[in-house]
Amino acid sequence: MDKFFFKDVSGSSTDIERLEVQSFEINGFIVKVTVEGKSGMVFDKDEDRPKRFSNAAEVRKAFAKCNVKEAVMTYDSPYEEMVGEPEKVDSEMTMPFSMTEENE
Question: pLDDT tens digits, residue range 12-37?
Answer without folding.
Answer: 889 999 999 998 777 789 999 999 99
